[in-house]
């Protein structure tokens, strides 16, 4: 039987209120010690206590996940432009992306993509 995360948070809070160290709580509920610290500071900082924090925690999980900054197709385009144009610099790749594909990436992002292939 799997224990829900909210149950782990409530159990961790009860143990924390009893004075159990965070490292022991982490072992008991099966999470990292820093996670327990984040939970405890969240509960202590919430004016409604444990109930308010659990409501906040569940609402945060409902939001949409942020999209990737650069999709795999764009990465392949950057790599192929670099190969096709005699190892040209990031600024030229940026210009080629705008001219040929109609979208732009920052030069920093282009160099990050290029460093992934090495």
Residue stretches low in confidence (pLDDT < 50, at least 5 long) are none
Indicate the radius of gyration in whole angstroms. Answer: 23 Å
Q: What is the quaternary state of this protein?
A: single chain
Task: Supply the helix-strand structural class.
Answer: mainly alpha
Measured as a percent range, the helix fraction is 55-70%
User: Could you tell me how far the N terminus lies from the C terminus, measured between alpha carbons in angstroms?
Assistant: 45 Å
Mean pLDDT: 90
Q: Count of helical segments?
A: 7
How much of the sequence is in beta strands?
under 5%
According to DSSP, the number of beta strands is 0
Total count of domains: 2
Largest sheet: none
Order of helices and strands: HHHHHHH
Shape verdict: elongated
Keywords:
2 domains, elongated, mainly alpha, 118 residues
How would you summarize the topology of this molecule?
Layout: H1 5-17, H2 22-29, H3 33-45, H4 49-60, H5 72-84, H6 90-101, H7 107-117
